[in-house]
Automatic annotation (TrEMBL):
Gene3D superfamilies assigned to the protein according to its UniProt record, in alphabetical order: Tumor Necrosis Factor Receptor, subunit A, domain 2
Residue ranges constituting the Elapor1/2 mannose 6-phosphate receptor homology domain according to the UniProt record: 322-538
Any coiled-coil regions, as ranges: none
Protein name per Swiss-Prot or TrEMBL: Uncharacterized protein
Organism: Ancylostoma caninum
Domain of life: Eukaryota
Record keyword Transmembrane helix present: yes
Transmembrane segments: 588-608
Claim: Transmembrane is one of the keywords in the record: yes
GO cellular component, one term: membrane
Leader sequence residues: none
Pfam short name (any one): TNFR_ELAPOR1_6th
Keywords: Membrane, Transmembrane, Transmembrane helix
Length: 674
């Protein structure tokens, strides 16, 4: 009071100890007064020194309330980090529990999407005073000698929630939540049976069960400490704003200076407060403040986005395997949904149940809804039949209670995935791993190994043929959902494997034979989609070409794909082209023969021409030996003689051409004999 506080002490309830006996411990005196620490964010002290929420359009870090700057909007909420007093909208109480209460929940922190009847078996309220005590740095569970109790704390948010930064036409979803609730706590317990529960609603309830409380043997030394609580985006009720703002968020300004949220897929620039579309193949993180380009998240492998809202795929994929690019065409799967069932399980009494799974690979929403006859035993909660929707979900199917057992009841829907995040060959992602058992790779190896093979032989076989014997798989990775638990620290995840199976013309989704209920550990769920459509598209060198018989100048050419690829509809599996009645070898031999004939003819002509030339030279040689021509006395003309053509006798020496004729322009003088 008046800005000061002090620490006081009370007896542990129920008070069973006496102070009037010798040596009894007495109740400590209150501590000296001290100055109060700052208020919680979004609050400030009033004239009486009491912390109250700041008015609308104001914010505070625990001291004075300040009006938000221009082009900003206050981020209203409840942020409790100081615990000198109990906040105004928090109440505490204690209740008895009976054995079996909370029996279905064994987690350290349980969150329900709707109010759960967790204290349905409560008999009477217990009286321990305040069940949670403000100790300055934390809200601590009160010590008590009562047995079989639950220490509860309730945070009421009557104003609802409103996100001023969310696009007005964007529906709420796990990827685009309206608000966030976070709690930081620690427990100190005698054993692992102590539990801290949380139930979601507009009223948030936190219940602490000490070790052994369900059996009535509570550990009185157990303690839970809540260090901080934070609720964001609190709305208004009847014109009254709920909560207080610890900060003001920048926002784009519209007409009259009002804050206009950016459209879906856009982010706001820090300096100019302008809305800008996220770059291609990125999406805006709807759970962030969407300020700066860093709020745009890159799409996963083989996914793309042009609107910045969601990452999608049209079914055309490309992956690299063994330094070779494989292309897939799964466009026919884009708007399809599949349903498959797990193995049937029988109870000792003979009753059976099984799980039914609904899947969608490329963004189509599937739904799992509780369906049963309102006249049967399930009609206890007939007004609250649960429905989940997303990319994949699971239902528990059991025979409807009746005389003929022909009806089925669908209960306990479980959401397995919200959206597709990646299509790749990876077997490890975000801590999840596809084992050989899930992928049935061990079965493929055992079928190849001979039963008579020795241990060393089997090892060699597994090392040598394992990779070659494995089917060609492409894995569809979905987002993780569910609440983390001791058994599943990362919640639940789903992977669907598209497996190349040339023998199956129509796609079929099934569960692994090695894990017939869809999961081997209860956390990672897996399904296999088998089809010839899941085989890669044949490229150059991926098929054999077979030529048919030449009929009437036309020949049919058939393309036979390898076992690991398929031909698309765009490329015909056979085509016709012009052909000759002669085979390829016959055409080669015929061409070779014609070429040799031409060469021989050419050589014969040359030989004949040479023969005629030699014959002519021989004839001239004979004539020159037997002729009686006068012998020339001199080799040249005297100075006073004229060169007259009539006084000379010459013989023409003709140069024979290749194809007949004689060159008459060249003359050789014939010398006179002596």
């Amino acid at each position: 009071m008046n800005g000061t506080t002090r620490t006081t002490y009370k007896k542990v309830q129920p008070a069973v100890c006496r102070e009037d006996l010798p040596g009894a411990a007495t109740l400590p005196s209150p501590s000296a007064t001290r100055k109060c620490p700052p208020c919680n964010p979004g609050m400030a002290k009033d004239a009486k020194g009491i912390c109250v929420f700041c008015p609308a359009e104001h914010f505070s870090q625990g001291d004075a309330c300040v009006r938000c700057p221009v082009e900003t909007v206050p981020n209203y909420g409840y942020e409790y980090v100081q615990w000198d007093t109990l906040p105004p909208n928090i109440v505490t109480r204690c209740e008895y529990i009976s054995e079996g209460t909370f029996g279905l929940c064994y987690l350290n922190l349980c969150c329900y999407q709707r109010p759960a009847p967790m204290l349905a078996d409560v008999s009477t309220a217990c009286n321990v005073g305040e069940a949670w005590l403000a100790s300055g740095t934390a809200l601590v569970s009160a010590p008590s000698l009562q047995k079989g109790i639950a220490l509860e704390m309730e945070l009421t948010i009557a104003e609802g929630f409103s996100n001023p930064m969310a696009p007005r036409d964007q529906p709420a979803s796990p990827q685009a939540p309206v608000a966030h609730f976070s709690i930081v706590f620690e427990t100190s317990c005698a054993d692992s049976s102590c539990v801290l529960y949380m139930i979601e609603s507009f009223l948030f309830k936190v219940a602490f069960l000490r070790s052994g409380s369900t059996s009535g043997d509570d550990s009185v030394i157990d303690q839970a400490r809540i260090l901080s609580m934070n609720v964001t985006n609190v709305g208004t009720k009847e014109g009254i704003q709920g909560g207080g703002a610890s900060r003001c968020l920048p926002c784009p300004s519209g007409q009259f200076g009002k804050c206009i949220p950016c459209p879906p897929g856009h982010f706001m620039t820090p300096g100019t407060h302008e809305c800008v579309l996220c770059p291609p193949n990125t999406v805006a993180n709807a759970s962030s403040d969407r300020v700066g380009i860093e709020s745009c998240v890159v799409c996963g492998e083989n996914l793309h986005s042009l609107d910045g809202v969601a990452c999608r795929s049209e079914g055309l994929l490309s992956v690299v395997r063994d330094n070779r690019t494989l292309n897939y065409d799964l466009s026919s799967w884009v708007k399809k949904t599949w349903t498959t069932t797990a193995v049937k399980v029988f109870a000792r009494e003979g009753a059976s149940y099984y799980h039914s799974f609904n899947f969608s690979l490329f963004g189509e929403k599937v739904q799992c809804k509780e369906v049963y006859d309102s006249s049967d035993a399930f009609s206890v909660n007939d007004q609250s039949r649960e429905t989940v929707a997303g990319a994949a979900c699971r239902l528990t199917v059991l025979p409807d209670i009746g005389s003929n057992h022909t009806k089925l009841a669908f209960v306990s829907p479980l959401l397995l995935a919200n959206r597709l995040e990646e299509i790749s060959l990876r077997r490890n992602r975000d801590g999840w791993k596809l084992t050989d058992q899930l992928l049935e790779y061990g079965l493929h190896i055992s079928l190849i190994s001979s039963p008579n093979c020795s241990a060393h032989c089997k090892k060699s076989n597994s090392e040598g043929v394992e990779e070659a014997s494995r089917p060609i798989d492409v894995h569809f990775w979905f987002d993780s959902v569910g609440v983390p638990s001791e058994a599943c620290p990362r919640g639940n995840a789903l992977v669907i494997t598209a497996r190349c199976t040339p023998s199956k013309k129509q796609p079929e989704v099934r569960l692994p034979h090695t894990c017939p209920d869809g999961t081997c550990d209860g956390c990672l769920f897996h399904a296999i989609a088998e089809s010839v459509q899941a085989c890669p598209i044949c490229g150059i060198g991926d098929y054999d070409m077979i030529r048919g018989e030449c009929v009437d100048g036309q020949q049919t050419i058939h393309y036979i794909p390898d076992k690991h690829c398929v031909l698309t509809g765009k490329e015909a599996q056979s085509r016709k082209e012009a052909c000759s009645v002669l085979s390829q070898k016959e055409r080669v031999f015929l061409g070779f023969g014609v070429t040799m004939f031409v060469i021989l003819c050419f050589a014969l002509i040359i030989i004949c021409q040479r023969n005629r030339r030699l014959e002519y030279k021989y004839t001239r040689l004979v004539e020159s030996r037997n002729g009686e021509l006068p012998t020339a006395e001199t080799c040249g003309l005297e100075d006073d003689e004229d060169d007259e053509a009539a006084d000379r006798v010459i013989f023409a020496k003709g140069k024979r051409k290749i194809f007949g004729g004689r060159d008459t322009e060249a003359f050789v003088p014939l010398e006179n004999e002596d």
